[in-house]
Amino acid sequence: xxxxxxxxxxxxxxxxxxxxxxxxxxxxxxxxxxxxxxxxxxxxxxxxxxxxxxxxxxxxxxxxxxxxxxxxxxxxxxxxxxxxxxxxxxxxxxxxxxxxxxxxxxxxxxxxxxxxxxxxxxxxxxxxxxxxxxxxxxxxxxxxxxxxxxxxxxxxxxxxxxxxxxxxxxxxxxxxxxxxxxxxxxxxxxxxxxxxxxxxxxxxxxxxxxxxxxxxxxxxxxxxxxxxxxxxxxxxxxxxxxxxxxxxxxxxxxxxxxxxxxxxxxxxxxxxxxxxxxxxxxxxxxxxxxxxxxxxxxxxxxxxxxxxxxxxxxxxxxxxxxxxxxxxxxxxxxxxxxxxxxxxxxxxxxxxxxxxxxxxxxxxxxxxxxxxxxxxxxxxxxxxxxxxxxxxxxxxxxxxxxxxxxxxxxxxxxxxxxxxxxxxxxxxxxxxxxxxxxxxxxxxxxxxxxxxxxxxxxxxxxxxxxxxxxxxxxxxxxxxxxxxxxxxxxxxxxxxxxxxxxxxxxxxxxxxxxxxxxxxxxxxxxxxxxxxxxxxxxx
Length: 539
Prior knowledge:
Layout: H1 11-20, E1 24-27, H2 36-42, E2 46-49, E3 59-61, H3 67-73, H4 80-91, E4 97-98, E5 107-110, E6 132-142, E7 146-158, E8 161-163, H5 171-181, E9 186-192, H6 196-203, H7 212-220, E10 225-228, E11 235-237, E12 242-248, E13 255-257, E14 271-273, E15 275-283, E16 289-291, H8 296-316, E17 321-326, E18 335-340, H9 346-355, E19 362-367, H10 375-385, H11 388-391, E20 392-399, E21 417-425, H12 449-453, H13 467-483, H14 488-494, H15 500-512, E22 516-518, E23 524-526
Parallel strand pairs: 1-2, 3-16, 4-10, 18-19, 19-21
Antiparallel strand pairs: 2-3, 5-15, 6-7, 6-9, 7-8, 8-15, 9-12, 10-11, 12-15, 13-14, 17-18, 20-21, 22-23
């Protein structure tokens, strides 16, 4: 894959590109921070709020809150290209490069100068538990597994204290748990205001021991620049607007956190999580605060990480994939539809492979003639190709995501389990394919409705249905179908210079003479030929 066209673009460069393309609106009038999320929700553009009442810092939000802006952020021209960029980054990682000087070091606040309440963190929904930092790329290090990067949410509790939402099993939770069990804090850096390249790389759930910043470099096509933190032995992203340096305290999952509007488009429940003490804030002199707007900013950019994981699992299982759709109705996370070029038995194999991916709940496998992006087409496949006792697979007791509101309530600290459901909506083995031949209207290549709206008239045939002509055509049809069966439409096309009534009468004559028959596929043939369908035997 060639280097992305915006491989060297900064976060601010991306904002300017959005602005120049009419995808970012600058608001210079005073705006209350409590109104920001509501305004972004109503807007079809990203917004930069230059004058947030009570704060010295602008707020930008909604920058990848549409498919178009997600595509722009990744330097692509179509949405599926994002998955290809991610896969390229996974297959061809580029190790990050460390720099001594970084723009976010222009202002350094430590100790008693740390005050998170000076950041213009907007209020999101009416049920929020507090101000939420939503766009922080968090980097941590484990003595055994090395660096890990991910995007986590932080609820501000005090001027130097936040929660960290790691209720879901993931690598960061593992790092924090191991540190807690060892009785030590877990240092973390939180980079805010970064390019979508870094966000996508961090959002991919990579195996333990994998450096997500190297994946981000592979996506970008050049090394991500990191700088060293001031108070902890960890890197952060050099191009950030703001960096928080902190430690997950070894107190365990003891403090309430949330509620907050989640990727599910629902309000999450109250969680119990550790707390983070912020030791330093470093930032640019003219820093921008990026508020990632839930749920769509998360959904549009993170969905391709599910595509990649599903594709890898199916390829490992030896399945030929045509298309994948991780549906928006499934919150870009829980529902997948996969079209495969099926061989015998592979519908079920594909289900088992896909259901092993992350926290997918429901998977539908369809044949390659089904459009996975057309809900009616998929439902039609389920309606016409599925027998529940044969094609619906239920796997109980699988790991589930705590944000699933349909799960039973589990005790604090217990990882919930739930059911995974697979539907094999492929054509079953041993079922004749002709049962699934779709209606295909004749002459679609030449009969166009717009032409007729504009006055097109078909030419008049040069014959009428007289007896001699009927006899001649009947004899010709007999000669043709004695060699190979033909569909009715093929006969009509063969004699297109005659009016249709003449052809119909010729076929009628063959019926009357007890000559005409059909083969098992419904094509016309001679009654006594080798092609003729045989009537079913009586039971």
